[in-house]
Amino acid sequence: MRLSTLFLRTLREDPADAELPGHKLLVRAGYIRRAAPGIYSWLPLGLKVLRKVEAIVREEMDAIGGQELSFPALLPREPYEATNRWTEYGPLIFRLQDRKGNDMLLGPTHEEMFTLAVKDMFSSYKELPLTLYQIQTKYRDEARPRAGLLRGREFIMKDSYSFDVDDAGLEQAYRRHREAYVRIFDRLGFDYVIVYADSGAMGGSASEEFLAVSPVGEDTFVRCEASGYAANVEAVVVPQAPAVDVATVEATPAAHVEDTPDSPTIATLVAQADALHPRADGRGWTAADTLKNVVVMLEHPDGSTEPLAIGLPGDREVDAKRLEAQVAPASWRPFEEADFAAYPMLAKGYIGPGVLGEQRSSGIRYLLDPSVAQGSAWVTGADEHGRHVFDLVVGRDFTADGTIQAGEIREGDPSPDGAGPLTLARGIEMGHIFQLGRSYAEALGLQVLDENGKLVTVTMGSYGVGVSRAVAAVAEATHDDLGLVWPRELAPADVHVVATGKDAAVFEHAEGLVAQLGEAGLEVIYDDRPKVSPGVKFKDAELLGVPTIVVVGKGLADGVLEVKDRRTGDRREVVVADAVAAVRAQVGGADSGDAPARG
Hints:
Elements: H1 21-28, E1 32-36, E2 39-42, H2 44-63, E3 67-68, E4 74-76, H3 78-82, H4 85-88, E5 94-97, E6 103-106, H5 111-121, E7 130-139, E8 154-164, H6 167-188, E9 192-196, E10 207-213, E11 219-223, E12 230-232, H7 246-251, E13 256-259, H8 266-276, E14 291-299, E15 305-313, H9 320-327, E16 331-334, H10 337-342, E17 365-368, E18 377-384, E19 387-393, E20 402-403, E21 423-437, H11 439-444, E22 447-449, E23 455-457, E24 459-466, H12 467-478, E25 495-499, H13 504-519, E26 524-527, H14 534-544, E27 548-552, E28 560-565, E29 571-575, H15 579-588
Parallel strand pairs: 3-7, 15-17, 17-20, 25-26, 25-27
Antiparallel strand pairs: 1-2, 4-6, 5-6, 7-8, 8-24, 9-10, 10-21, 11-12, 11-21, 13-19, 14-15, 14-16, 18-19, 21-24, 22-23, 27-28, 28-29
Helix pairs in contact: 1-12, 2-6, 2-12
């Protein structure tokens, strides 16, 4: 690839719409260009990297017996209607009609199509187990596409599906995919962790995510160093707090309502309680002594709405993502003034359990955080402006309709397995594997005859890898202040040869070197631009991020070339006669920065 003719233009300034460092560099280095919000064109260098990611994924999928096919992106409505996902996906899918008025969609995921394909072709247990996969473009109408390739409206994904007669077969398929994913992400060359995950709209039972550890990741995950427990924050199950002993409950005074003027927030309530109603034991009130009641509005895919109230300790917040996972496929939004007007029994800033619950005056379903123990006493809203109730005991004075795992998880919280404290980190979701079970097969009628001639419903697994997202994740994980720094297995070339100066002999020798490197089986980017300064060429070489840079310049007069390791910055001079062997040795050797750590 000659830079004099390559379809490439590098930029010195960051693009205005890019926020993350890797996204900025991918655009500046000419790997991708924005076509519309959340939609990107792949330019020649970017496409080379993308194809190498695809090749890694394809090799590992083929190694476990996967068979590749490709479904269309434009799909009919009917299969998605049968699984109810035409409704459940809501505004997230692109919908359109053909000229005859038939409803169509651009595929956000293809469980339905895989299921129907197997149903159409297979009818016996003898034809199973089976694993099918595709690497294909998906479409989701994200409300706020952001972070470049990390959250777009068009993206490339590997999705595979296993089909088995029984659960034992599904577990084996799941294990094979998990091991293949470990190999895939090891080869991609970034730090990652495997965490328990919420299945979300996909459904199913066992579910794990592969997260690229990154401070710019959208996902928060937790780890317990003592036990190795790791989970996406949405999947953390907080154990139910043990009930308070009967003697303590019996010794708790009867609930009493007190004036707490101008205290619609937890902070003002604590201040007023300290000033007007000090504790008998002499210590000050804290936010943890209060019960916060948060009301949200659920919006179901069919357009209907439903209020939901959540009670949790006042020193905790509702975690938006945990709540989203709990109420899926519905979405949620904060309660608005019009909602309060529709429920006049809710005193904004002073909402209490007295009116909450499906059997109480509001009729609003009321769910408690598991940390709220049976028999525990609280200060909470009295459903009157300027008033709160003290010593309100769970179970004695009020009950809820159930519990919900929606409270925030904090650094230092106890691990659900009881082994020690949790630490929090951020990551980019790169892969997700599910044991789907039989939900899609049942909805679409996928059955086969078992060994006894009886019809049985096939059980399925679903396994995804974000292929285009992997390019962005690697860029975010491996760049430096000068530009991109690609791992060898993903780089658009093995070597970047830079010819500097105006001496014709320099360019002649560089031409010969490039030819020899090509004959040695190496991919080469050659900066042969004759009227570009050495400084610009060096900056472009750093920006493009090829692992090995060879400079043919003024050292040629002394019979030497410069070989630079892009990642470490190490430079060394090699004699001209040894240049090809030296470069081949560097390219073929272990790159010390490519071995990923894994949690």
